[in-house]
Amino acid sequence: MLPRMHLDPMMINITVALCVVLVLAYVTVLADQPIVVAYIISGVVLGPSGLALFDDQTMVARFGEIGVVMLLFFVGMEVSIPRLMARWKIALLGTAIQIAVSVAACSALTWLFDLPLALGVLFGFVISLSSTAVILKALQDSGEMDTPFGQNAVGVLLVQDMAIVPMMILLSLLGDQGAEESHLLRTLLGGLLVFALVFYLMRSERLHIPAIFLRSHEKRVLFGLLLCLGAATLTSWLGLSLGLGAFLAGMVLASSDQSEWVHAHLESLYVVFVMIFFLSVGMMVDLHYLQSHLLLVIGATMLVFIFNAGVNVLVMRALGESWEMALITGGLLSQIGEFSFLLAEVGAVAGILSDQLHELTVIVIAMTLLFSPLWVTMCRRLARREGLFPLL
Fold it and tell me: Between 95 and which of 159, 169, 204, 385 could a Cys-Cys bridge form, CB atoms 3.0 to 4.6 Å apart?
């Protein structure tokens, strides 16, 4: 007798999910929108407040983190360190000024409404971090990674990723969660190692990878994954972000004599995991909360877009960029990034953020990610209108 075959519910859910993603991807392409929009909307449809095909958001979020890591790994292979260092003033000074202005504005707002200062600092940190995943995916798809505004955006994102470490430590201190001395020492060591690696890559010739790692297709795939995930794990242990380690690993591989085969062997995995990340973002949107607080969410989302774009435009302009380049860069950096989810979680654990404010923060972050491509398109069209700044 043949054994009875049982239909696995998970297989049904995955099949339905792929159908939804493909249909929405077709629609977004027809509407001339980036594919990430289809992924995020698919996450909303498939998530707990939609069809509820995937209830374990933690598992999806974990896979999504791998997607961000692989995205930054691939981007690191396309970044030119000399060009990036040539724009250090915008990356360092621009990011520092933008974070300071965001914290000052949010702190003033909380003071005006007689709210704790720690809440203003938290919101300032949250809105000051842009989305590495969204921006780099947009620059890759449009082939604008090597443009001046593309390099400006990459430099700012790299500094923001490093800035999340002191942000998390400060939030823990403000919430009476004292940071451990061993953690501070690891973080300091990690920062020194990062700067040492970048300095080495700037001065060295092409690196050589032993052929023993590359003698078969399987070895190449496993070595590439080990380099990507291993570097991400190391920087995470040192108190830095996962994405920073993957980004640095990509730069190391780009400086080697064996960088050509990575795209061919790992790109399929990269596409799948990046899709899962954006699906996880969509799954965080609570449609019931959105329906009952629609005006508040819309108002907060628009305020974030306008404030972030305005601050970044003025900062870029003050640092010598043209109005056109400043507007495009400001538009790219105007959404709230995926690492802000982590800051919101730290704020909630530290007792700075209430449950209601945490839910509002999460959904506003998700909404800025969803509508970021539309906002960037509007900023591009505004920047490239002839005669817009005739006297400036």
Answer: 159
